[in-house]
Each structure stands twice: as C-alpha cells, then as structure tokens.
Amino acid sequence: MDISKLIKELQNPNIYPHSVQTPIKVIQTHISVIFLTGDYAYKIKKPVDFGFLDYSNLEKRQYFLNQELVMNQKIAPDLYLEVLAITINNNQIKIGKEGKIIDYVLKMNQFPQDGLFINLFQAGKLEKYHLEALGKIVSDFHKKTRSNDYIRSFGNIEVIKQSIDENYERTEKYINIAQTKQQYNETKAFTDNYFKLKQEHFKKRQKEDKIRECHGDLHLKNICLWNNKIQLFDRIEFNEEFRYVDVMFDIAFTVMDLEARKRQDLSNIFLNTYLENTGDWHGLQVLPLYLSRQAYVRAKVMSILLDDPNITEKDHNKAIQDAKNYYHLAWQYTQKNQGKIILMSGLSGSGKTTIAKYLAQHINAILIRSDALRKHLANIPLNQTGNDALYTTAMNEKTYSNLIELGKMVAKQGFTVILDAKFDRHIWREPLIKIAQIDKIPLTILSCYAPLKLLSDRLSQRIGDISDATASLLQQQQENYEDFNEEELAYVKMINSHDDWEQKIREIYQL
After folding, report:
1. Cα Rg for the chain, rounded, in angstroms?
2. In Å, how far are 43, 235, 248, 252 from 217, measured between CA atoms?
3. What is the pLDDT of residue 470?
C-alpha cells in the first residue's frame, strides 16, 4: 500500500483492537510515522532507502521493527511491547488480525507527551536537576552496555571517517540551499584534519574500551520522564555504525541538542555530571569532532525532509531553516577556542565547589573536582566514604598530579577548565603557573574564604556530596595552608563566600 494511503488508514480508530482517543495524533519523521491512540503508540517505518538505512521492502521493515523492539526493551522495558502485522481482509485493514500482511507496526505504551524532554524544554519545565539525573543515568547505561572486539573495531579511524564522509556526500546537493559552499568546505576540512592529527586519541579510546553498544540518537526527542523515571528510548537499530560508537558520540548528541536551543547551562550540567560520574575527561579530546558530527547529522535529517512530498509547505520551510541552523552549528564546533584554566583554592567548606559549579554553568567550563578524581584513581564509587588510604601523602600527590595534567590537556583542547581542590600548597600551584606561562594559557586563581565557624557549620550540615571532608579537619588544614607568594598573587582573585559572591563572580567574568 502506498505510504500516504497507509498513514491515512492508520488514523481510522476502527482498525485498532482497542478503544482509542480521537482524533489520532500523527507524528512524522523522515523515516517513520507514529500514531498516538491514547493508551498505546504505534510506529511504522517508511519504505525509504537512504543508504545508511534501508526500509525499502516489507521484510526489511519487519526485521528492523523487531530489532528495535529487542534493543529498546533492554533500556526501556516499560515502553516497548510487541511487533504486530497490519493486515487486510475483505478490504478491511486491521492490526494484529488474520489476513494478507501489508506492513508491520511496533506497539508501545504511550506516555504523556508533556513528559518528553523536548516538550518539557519547550514548556520551560526542563530543570537543572533533570540534567543532573540524566548525566548519571547515561553514565550507568554506558557502564553496563556491552563491548567486544567486533564492537571495538567500529572505533577504527577508517570506519568513523567513512561514516562522517557519507554525511558530506549525502548533503552536497543541499549546498546553496541550506548552507554555503564555504561553510561546507570548512566543516569538512576540520574533520579531515582531525583524523590526520589526532590518530592516537582514537586508538587510545579503543584501548580504554570506550567503543560500546550505545544509544546512537540521544537527543531530547528520545528521552522522556514517565512513571517518575527518566527513560531513554528509540535506540538506533538500523545501522551498527551509529550504535557501536564512542560513548562521547552519545554525549555529544545531548550536548549539541541543548546548545542548539541556546541552553549551554543545561548542556554544561549534563556534560559535567557525566564526566564526573565516569571519570572520562580524556573523552574531551574527541568530543569536538562528535559535536560537529551530530549537528551535521541533524542538518542532514532536516535536509532530507525537503525531498519528502508528504510534508506540508509550513513543515518544508521550517526544515530549511532548521537545516541552516544545524549546518551553522556544525561549523561553529570546528572553530578552535582559547583554552583557559581556573584554579579554585581554599579550605574545605569555603564554597569552592558551589562557586565552581555556578561559574561552570555560566561560562560553559569543564569542572574537575579532586574529590571525584581521587575516588576514580582509587577505583571506589563516588558515593562511598574513603578510608585513610585514600588520603595518604602518596595519594595526594597522585591526585594533584593527575588533576594538573588533566587541566593542561583540557585547556589545550580549547576548553575552559575549572580545577576544584584545596590547592593549599605551592607545589600544587606552581606547575599550573608554569603551564600557563609556557603554553600561553590564561590562568585565574579564585581563592575562596569565609569565617572558620561558618566553614565548620557548612561541613557539619553537608549531605549527599562526594567529598569526605569533615569539620574536624579544618584546624589542620588551616595550619598547613601556604599563603600565596608574590608570583601567585598576580593570578589571584579573592572570593568571600559569606558575602555576595555571585556579584563578585559576575564582575570578574562580565556575566
């Protein structure tokens, strides 16, 4: 049956084996159509062949619907139910009944559409705590998802490059329609150079087991809040190259989607939460490539919609504008930024982390806490209280050495990085000053302070934080603290966390 006729037929409530809410709402993408009937949602695949996916015949559509069911039941078992045949008998079309099979449909539990992350966002109800929770959920998902030699092979540069090159080849026809020739050439040149200059990064990602069976399409339209639980759904089933990927591939989709909607504060919370929970700060070495790739893919999807005769003129015009915006964003991600280092310093309870988180969200900085890094180095859960072995002289040296190296690496990648630790000794501050001087990286030291009684009260009341610091340590910390020397003072900004520190931060960074 012609797809446009099938779409019309599936809006008839009489073909469903249960009562439905009318009118049936229809949601179309470039590859599928979803019908919302009230209690259940039904999804069909369009008979299309784009090269990277092929639903061109009945057997393929049945196969990939079953693949979608199996793969998504692993991550969202409450949503995905079964694949049913669409049949015709005596000119009557039915779902799940006897008759000649004309297509297949995936049946799912229907969640309220206002729980979809994209709809929460558009309603102004997507809050910071949602993104913190999402960062932890995706972190846990990636830790549990599988990897093996075959999956890791998809991390070979040749495989990644071929997939990205196909995007450029597929979108050449839209040059001067949705993007300029110059923008196209510059975006492509960036990815070509990335593969030439950063080969060791990709090899290291394979060795560190960061190529896994991921989601593949983790943007706001594929995340929902249902039954008081964040659900990831619509995992890519049609192409292994989109699913067997670097975990940063998944992260980049969510970050890009939020940044495309001008909410870097939310993307920053998600990214920093994920990085802190995984300890995968080295993934930032490949993140710019995947950010550009994901924006370009969204542009490609919008461009493909322009060729669909079934969409309205209004949707056609919107697709052109959306494609232009995403192509431009993909190009923006190719522009190298000046990396910066911000060093937090102060006693426990002095407000370092509170101020660092606030600042990170406002200037889109990578936040690395020594408390998290220390536990990752010791291979213990972040929420587990460390024993004395976690705070030996040797462990302190290991933590600070790694923190300094990470700060240098992240800044040289073009990110602003905030290093959150006491930094109470010259031997920890001096290396960062040398790095700033040698590598021409701007450095600021934010020295946080408050009355000792207030610090003690804060630490006594602290709950749910990964830091193990207690009020009993303050006296010793104060005695061991080494004041800034003349060279260090040139980089220092004093922040009284008992006063209006937000105003001070806004003044320093012109927020």
Report:
1. 26
2. 17, 6, 12, 10
3. 81
Q: How far apart are CA 307 and CA 301, in angstroms?
A: 11
For residue 184 the two structure tokens come to 């196209």
Q: Residue ranges of the alpha helices (H) in 244-284?
A: 247-260, 264-278
Phi, psi of 4, rounded to the nearest 5 degrees: -65, -35
Tell me how far apart the terminal alpha carbons of the chain are, to the nearest angstrom. 58
Q: What CA–CA distance (Å, rounded) separates 362 from 511?
A: 7
**What angle (nearest 5°) sits at the alpha carbon of residue 361, between those of residues 358 and 363?**
105
Tens digits of residue pLDDT in 412-459: 999 999 999 999 999 999 999 999 999 999 999 999 999 989 989 889
* Preceding peptide of 23 cis, ω within 30°: yes
- Asked if residue 178 lies in contact with residue 305, where contact means CB atoms within 8 angstroms, the answer is no
Distance CA 167, CA 173 (A): 11
Tell me the pLDDT tens digit for each residue of 252-281. Answer: 999 999 999 999 999 999 999 999 999 999
Query: What domains are defined for the chain?
Result: 3-110 (3.30.200), 117-332 (3.90.1200), 340-509 (3.40.50.300)
Residues 68, 82 contacting (CB under 8 angstroms): no
Looking at the predicted structure, is the pLDDT value of residue 1 above 80?
Answer: no
Assess contact for 104 and 86: CB atoms under 8 A.
yes
Strand (E) or helix (H) holding 446: strand 443-449
Q: Where are the alpha helices (DSSP H) in 172-281?
A: 181-197, 199-207, 240-243, 247-260, 264-278
312: pLDDT strictly greater than 90: no
Threshold 0.90, pTM exceeds: yes
In 275-351, the DSSP E strands lie at: 340-345
Report the length, in residues, of the chain: 511
Task: Report the half-sphere exposure of 368 (CA within 13 A, side-chain side).
Answer: 28
User: Which is nearest to 359 in space by CA: 337, 344, 345?
Assistant: 344
CA dihedral over 205, 211, 217, 222, signed as positive or negative: negative
Collapse the DSSP code of 327 into the 3-class scheme (helix H, G, I; strand E, B; otherwise coil) and give the result: helix
Pairing of strands 443-449, 492-496: parallel
10 Å Cβ neighbour count for 347? 23
